[in-house]
Amino acid sequence: MKHPDEYRGKxxxxxxxxxxxxxxxxxxxxxxxxxxxxxxxxxxxxPEASELEALGISVICGGHPDDLIHPGVALLVKNPGIPYxxxxxxxxxxxxxxxxxxxxxxxxxxAAPMIGITGSNGKTTTTTWVGxxxxxxxxxxxxxxxxxxxxxxxxxxxxxxxxxxxxxSSFQLKGTEDFRPRIAALLNIAETxxxxxxxMDDYIASKAKLFANQTADDTAVLNWDxxxxxxxxxYIKARILPFSMNEVLREGVYVMPPYGAEGxxxxxxxxxxTVVYTDEKGFTHEIIRVENIGLPGRFNVGNALAAxxxxxxxxxxxxxxxxxxxxxxxxxxxxxxxxERDGIAYYNNSKATNSKATNMALTSFKEPIVLIxxxxxxxxxxxxxxxxxxxxxxxxxxxxxTKEKIAAAAEKAGLKQIILVDNGKDAADTLTMAVQEAAxxxxxxxxxxxxxxxxxxxxxPSFEVRGRIFKEAVHxx
Length: 477
Known about the structure:
- This protein is α/β, with parallel strands linked by helices.
- It has helices at about 20-30, 50-55, 85-95, 100-110, 125-135, 150-155, 170-175, 195, 200-210, 225-230, 300-315, 320-325, 355-360, 385-390, 405-410, 425-440, 465-475; strands at about 10-15, 35-40, 60, 75-80, 100, 115-120, 140-145, 165, 185, 220-225, 240-245, 250-255, 275-280, 285-290, 335-340, 345-350, 370-375, 395-400, 415-420, 445-450.
- The chain has three domains: about 5-100, NAD(P)-binding Rossmann-like Domain (Rossmann fold), CATH 3.40.50.720; about 105-325, UDP-N-acetylmuramoyl-L-alanine:D-glutamate ligase; about 335-475, Mur ligase, C-terminal domain (Protein-Tyrosine Phosphatase, Chain A, Alpha-Beta Complex), CATH 3.90.190.20.
- A hairpin with a 5-residue loop joins strand 13 (about 275-280) and strand 14 (about 285-290).
- It is globular.
- About 50% of the residues are buried.
């Protein structure tokens, strides 16, 4: 798309209200565009409409009019979650109208260099961690995007002395054209959001758009342990800075000694490991002992590696990273400790919306686990969970559309205690019942872990709501 100023006097449609839609509508209106905002929700469900109309922005609620998109429309900005199959988007593409997400608009107005962070798992943790690392080093970060503050809102406040640290979803990236982050990080790729993308090819291609406009002056931070991430190397024009838990890198951030069979001590004892950075001149800098990283779980070691690589690229000295890496305690709904009751520890990992995220959570504990899982059915078979269920889990309590599928995986793993909680009319009551069943199955020294391996939308409006209901149920035991 063009710069927003070039849409002065032209018709622009914003599809979807919510916070990002409101902010991008304001940006384009301020630039002089004739903005119409459309949302299929009824007017009483769109409290933002009055605010926009007071500014002179047209708002249409209650459905998508047939004449919403016409040859006179110069740009369509859609909410990232709206599928490309809806009629207004299809009509726009047929007419050759550019279809973008808010990220693209924000990029054109942002004076600060951008750090873009994406991946199937760990985005929010890594983005928050990077923000704190840069803040501690005095680099004035602004954290925005999929993590909270709409990017178009934050972009208006940014200046060249800031770093814009942006969490990005595949939905957001799919709708970009010119977006070019100075530092782009791809954490991992797992099978997820296939209902939206229609398959892994489109999902991977959407993630890869993070690197599409980078040049040799930019940096791509890649997970060297993820084969899909490595497969993108031939298509990346930027300097590549890898991170790895399993390899010693010529240049990059990695664990010494690496994980894996070669890193085991006699008798299976784990060696002491250190996160290190080897720079372009071949000098190696120690960053932090792995055991001192503030978040539990091997996957959080990976997040720490990525955050360190990003921060170093942004100008933070490696010897300044340890205090924040060790003091950071994570983000709500991401392996969040809730409480200990009768010797049983309860953890909220509601953000685990795919099997890979749940596997990573299961491998974070040595104690026996009672797992609460299940949710929206996106077509996965959950076979990926079988090894972790067999090795780490003593019982499962299942709910949601996928409860039978995950039960089948649990049976294959040899579990004997498999409880299916019937979905009642009240989703909160169903999850509360699941917590009570898990507490009944658990013994002192066990972990009760909510890690659904599924999105929440079959029962709850968001994973946040699901996680908070879980925490309330634990506190009410």
